[in-house]
Design brief:
Number of domains: 1
Number of helices: 6
CATH topology: Nuclear Transport Factor 2, Chain: A
Strand content: 25-35%
Helix content: 25-40%
Radius of gyration: 15 Å
Structural class: alpha+beta
Strand order of the largest sheet: 1-2-3-4
CATH architecture: Roll
Largest sheet: 4 strands, antiparallel
């Protein structure tokens, strides 16, 4: 399990470096966010930190809070994030059933869903609107590991 954590952290660091090299103004993760991204941090706080990083165009920090697969495919930190206002992240987490999920999600022992609402303004690109519901799936191997965002979608 310790080896998996080292590989996961190393992979996240590589993903952050790759994303940072794509024109991101942020090349290193926010040390305050990294410092609090520990096993005791609730899943909802990870989602809040992720949304803050996306809003700040901080790809390196967003990648640290994500699984390598999610970080590599996440469009929002690639300049695709709308301006989010009135962001509310539910403190309630619900168990997430990975039965029909990709193998990457099934590989983790724990998976939860966290819901968020926000008002989006994308400057007219097509995602503006009221308060959409958006769900984030977070995973980890055990209670000793921090939560990582593995998937996102309407929920």
């Amino acid at each position: 399990m310790e080896l998996r954590r080292v590989v996961l952290v190393s992979t996240a660091a590589v993903a952050a470096a790759v994303l940072a090299g794509c024109g991101s103004p942020s090349t290193t993760p926010d040390p305050d966010v990294v410092g609090r991204h520990v096993a005791s941090q609730p899943a909802a706080e990870v989602v809040r930190d992720y949304l803050d990083a996306v809003q700040d165009d901080d790809r390196a920090t967003a990648a640290v809070l994500s699984t390598p697969g999610f970080a590599a495919s996440d469009a929002w930190p690639d300049g695709g994030a709308p301006d989010l206002d009135d962001v509310e992240v539910s403190d309630t987490t619900t168990a997430y059933d990975t039965t029909w999920s990709p193998e990457e999600l099934k590989a983790y022992a724990q998976a939860v869903n966290v819901q968020a609402t926000y008002t989006a303004d994308d400057g007219g690109a097509g995602t503006s609107g009221g308060e959409p519901g958006w769900g984030y799936v977070l995973v980890r191997d055990s209670d000793a590991d921090p939560w990582l965002i593995a998937a996102a979608g309407q929920g």
